[in-house]
């Protein structure tokens, strides 16, 4: 089957795969994400699971500030639909202007939580987000790194 002159199904499939494999977020964003995860591990080590999301947000903000990492809490972002403002959302944390951090304190992360981070990345035009669920025995089991490649 030919889609366009000289392009067969396999070529189209290869092009689609290549498009989806665009570059990862830059090194600076990765460094910031690593610093956030180190700070989150410390918060989880000290507090453990079982508190409200707001408690973890406050504690993580303190820990990041102690490490002299620039954060914005409850950062409002404008949401648009076809160029028209339709409301706003709030990021739990925006770290160094590079990484969106969404915090949860739930039994299990749901697909909607990941979709939320993806939508925040699209709205901010940023590439890297962290979804962190503090309500787990081991924090590594509650972390999702979400990269929105272009």
Please give a structural write-up.
- The protein has helices spanning 9-20, 27-47, 53-66, 111-124, and strands spanning 2-4, 7-8, 71-81, 84-95, 99-104, 128-133, 143-147.
- It is α+β, with helices and mostly antiparallel strands.
- Strands 3-4-5-6-7 form a 5-stranded mixed beta sheet. A two-stranded antiparallel ribbon has the order 1-2.
- Helix 2 packs across helix 3 (53-66).
- The longest helix has 21 residues, at 27-47.
- The protein is globular, with a radius of gyration of 18 Å.
- The model is unreliable at 1-21 (pLDDT under 50).
Short description:
The chain has 150 residues and is an alpha+beta fold. 41% of the residues lie in helices and 30% in strands. It has helices at residues 9-20, 27-47, 53-66, 111-124, and strands at residues 2-4, 7-8, 71-81, 84-95, 99-104, 128-133, 143-147.
Write the layout of secondary structure elements.
Layout: E1 2-4, E2 7-8, H1 9-20, H2 27-47, H3 53-66, E3 71-81, E4 84-95, E5 99-104, H4 111-124, E6 128-133, E7 143-147
Parallel strand pairs: 5-6
Antiparallel strand pairs: 1-2, 3-4, 4-5, 6-7
Helix pairs in contact: 2-3
Q: What is the number of strand segments?
A: 7
N- to C-terminal distance? 29 Å
Main β-sheet: number of strands, strand sense, barrel status?
5 strands, mixed
Structural class: alpha+beta
What is the global morphology? Answer: globular
Number of helices, counting only DSSP H or I runs of 4 residues or more: 4
**Parts with pLDDT < 50 across at least 5 consecutive residues:** 1-21
